[in-house]
Amino acid sequence: MKTTSLPLIFGTLLLLIAALGGSCIKPPEFPIEPVISYEGVDNNQVYQGSATAPNDTLSIHFTFTDGDGDLSFPSDSIDVFLTDSRVPQFPITYRLPNITGEGAANGIEGDIWINIPNKPFNICCYLGGQACASSTTQPADTFSFAIQIRDRAGHYSNTIRTETITVLCQ
Questions:
Q1: How many CB atoms lie within 10 A of CB 92?
Q2: Inter-residue contact 36 to 64 (CB < 8 Å)
């Protein structure tokens, strides 16, 4: 006569209930407009780009969600906009890498890092209205970036802002 231990049956029932319960959890649903959240910068101080400056890079990190998964354009369209608080009339634009929305019935989410090298003149001081100026009387300049992204349907995300970043003018 074969006997089955009660703990084995009880453990099997718990495993079955956990498996069935896990399949009923709904995945998150996101709005169809992209939503971004600021995570931070790797360093809030960077050298101005110049021929004699050390190589430096500013890395900005933020997260995104998009309910219909239509981020990134398959062509050369621009979908990331960074606006320097000192010169808002000249936004810096980027293109997201291809993000496939396949299987994204409830949307997509992820992380974005934008790396901005200081050279040749990607990060500059604006002193007395002059870009990439250096000064012995004003050794640093400060600014922040406003950031927004756009999906293929033309929906713009909310706008986020970095903390204050200091540029060492040298």
A1: 15
A2: yes
Please name the fold of domain 28-168: Immunoglobulin-like (2.60.40)
List, for residues 121-160, the tens digit of each pLDDT value: 789 898 877 888 777 788 999 999 999 999 888 999 999 9
Q: For the chain, which residues make up each domain, given as ranges? A: 28-168
For the whole model, what pTM was predicted?
0.78
Cα 86 to Cα 40, 47, 79, distances in angstroms: 20, 17, 22
The owner of tokens 């608080």 is 85
Query: What sign results for the dihedral spanned by CA atoms 68, 73, 78, 81?
Result: positive
Residue of 33, 108, 95 lying closest to 69 (CA atoms): 108
Which of 145, 118, 154, 122 is CA-nearest to residue 61?
A: 145
E strands in 42-123: 45-47, 57-66, 80-84, 92-94, 108-117
For 90-129, write each residue's pLDDT tens digit: 899 988 887 766 555 668 889 999 999 998 778 989 887 7
Closest CA to 161 of 47, 7, 38, 44: 38
- The 8-class DSSP code of residue 28 comes to P
- Those residues with Cβ within 8 angstroms of residue 126's Cβ, 6 or more apart along the chain or in another chain: 86, 87, 133, 141, 143
